[in-house]
Amino acid sequence: MIGYVTLGTNDLPRASAFYDALFASIGAKRQWESERSTAWGTSAETPALCVIKPFDGQPATAGNGTMIALAMPSRAAVDAFYAKAIELGAKDEGAPGPRGTGGYYGSYFRDLDGNKLAAFTEAA
Fold first, then answer.
1. Which DSSP string corresponds to 82-96?
2. What is the pLDDT of residues 39-58, one digit of tens each?
3. Residues in a beta bridge with 50
4. Which domains does the chain have, with CATH numbers?
């Protein structure tokens, strides 16, 4: 149902470099780009994450309570993705670990523009 998600940025080259390096760690690559946006995904048929300079020309801001959750195939993948994000300058919002009940295992961080992302799995 989700085609793509956009996160605002005030520095498209910086945000694009961050996500190029981060998403390369899980095999995702650029799906499209323009003078205002860049998007990554694993194929043209799956959802993409896009960073964009706001259309109205106003500064981009991170939404309070807004978070993008990225599914990972394993706990090791969650750990590696989180570590890569922190290495690239992301801010910690919750180190990898089990959350709640059941098999949910996740990590949380904010990108260079303050957007909150989670990497999670429900795989054992």
1. HHHHHHTTPEEEEEE
2. 999 998 899 999 999 999 99
3. 6, 39
4. 4-121 (3.10.180.10)
